[in-house]
Structures are given as C-alpha cells and as structure tokens.
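DATA CLASS: polypeptide
GOAL: derive structure tokens

***
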Amino acid sequence: MEEKILGSAQYFYIHIEKRSLPLEASKALVNSCRGKGSHKIALSMLERTKKHLSLWISDSSQVQIYKRYFGHLAKKDDLTLGECFSPFVLVNAWESFYDILITDRDRRRGAFGWIKEFFENVEIEDVLEYTDPKGILEKLIGFLDLPPSHDFYVATHIAYMINPHTFMPLTKSTGEAIGIREPGAYFRLVENAVKNGIKPIETYAFLHMLYEDVPSKRIGAEQILGIDRELELLKVAERLWNAGDFYEAHEVLEEVWECVKDKNKKECYQGVIRFAIALHHCRSGENKKAENVLKKAIPQMEGCKVSMPLNVRELTLQAKDILHKLKEGKAVDSFPELKVI
C-alpha cells in the first residue's frame, strides 16, 4: 500500500502536474554548456517550461518576470552553472522568490535584474570540490544572498541539482509544515527515507502532494475528473473583463491559450487577448498603442472560422468601431463586454 501511495504521488507530480519539465530543462542546459548535449534540445525544454509556468505559479506578475528571464537565458551564449540550474530552482522554490520580491521593495522594483544577477553570481562551482553533503549544503547557505528564512530552502534545490541521489528539494511551505527549518532535521529526513528504500525525489513528490498549494494540483484534479478547464478559465476572464480589469483578463486568457491545442482556436484566442491589451491601453490613455494592437487583433478575430465559446463576432465589430474612433481622434467612452457562450 505504501509503495502504491508513493508511486501515485510521483506519477501525479511528473505526468499530471508536469513538474519534471523545469528539472529536465535545467539538466539539458547543463549538458549543453558542458558539450554533452544538444543546445537546440535545451532551448526547446526551456521554452516548454516557459509556456507552462502558470501551472506551477499562482502569481501572474511572477510568471511574467520568469518568462522574461527565461527569454534572456535562451539568447545568452555562455551560461554559468547557476543559470543552468535556475529554471528548476525558480519554479520549484517559487514561493521563496515570491516572498523575497514582494517583501523587499528594492528587489521588487528591479525583479528581473535581481534574478538575473543572483543566478549569474551564485558560486556553485566553488561547492563542487566538497564531498560531504552537510558541507555542501552549509557552503551553499553561506554564500546565497537571501534572507535567513529562505536561504536554506533554496540551497536544498541547488544541492539537489548537484547530487539528486543525496539531496531532496524542500520548499518553505513543506519544510514549515513538517518542522524542518535547518540542515540537521533535513538530513535526518533524507536518511530515514533512504533507509526505507525511498528515493529523495519520491519523498519530495509525496510531501508536495500533502503540503504545497499550487495551481497544477487543481488543474490535475480537473483533468482527472473531466472538468472543462477552458470553460472555467473563460468564466474568470469574463468576470475580470466586464469589471474593466482588462490586463488581468488578458493574463487569464493567456492561460486559456496555453491549454488549448487546436491551432485555429489558439489564433482566435490570441486576437481576443490582443483586444484585451488594446482596451487596457485605451483605459490608460495610450491611444496610439491601442491602435497598433487593434490592427493585429482584428484580422485574427475576423479570420476565426472555428466554433468558439466566446462572442468573437460581436467583439470583432466592436474592435473595428473602437479602431475607427481612435483613428479619428475620438474618445472611447464605452467598452464591450466579453460573453461566454
């Protein structure tokens, strides 16, 4: 029974929640940098991780910061080991980086620059000469420029990338839930698990299932139960859009775009997403920006030939009307409604 529970937790973690994507992306980047793997495959894994960020991270602002950072990694030629590790560390320990960026005002203002600098400068190579696990973890904690309440948890993720057979990634929420806040208790947990024939990653997957609150759990449950995620997200977008929160609505619609497989539907949704951005610009008084976005959105919505659960035709006509007003320098004093059909 215990083996079935552990096996189910790991299956859900890897296959339903797709949590292996950022780990495989980091591994592929390491292999590419060491000349042992294809750079093209590494970039593909990084792009897949980038597309699935909203599965694992609930804060839309943090998702956008990560997307920008992953785009930066894709363009950079020579990555440090810290940068190679960063997709896994950022995604899996996202709550620590969220707390740091939200509570520290200076870091919040320059979140992208701070993350970029952090992983460029983290001195992982200096730790590789150590063979003692406790020495590795303590060395990592010592040079990570993070608040004391987070350095330990982030260090376990970096240590796991160094040696997955000895270390287990541990998040702040899980660690606090089971009372593990320092290396001593952490190694006792790992050692006990190994004695019982449980791999570190199996232990983490099980603890993750019990203690971590992430969007992918809900999404996975909906998938298993046959709940229409596209429709559920559209209802959220409808509420935000009709309340005038067009930017927030566009972020939810991007999640819809990501979960839809049909290319024609994706194209239609992209037009609606752009329309939301255009309305956001209108509301902000940036009419020229709105006009430019509308010129891209209208052809996409107009060319929509597939059945959509939204009032796309009505939105297209309203988008044309708004574009006409903007070209003539007239004020846009009313905004169209989004309707889920």
User: Anything to note?
Assistant: The domain at 229-327 is CATH 1.10.3450.10 (Hyaluronidase domain-like). The chain has a mean pLDDT of 87.
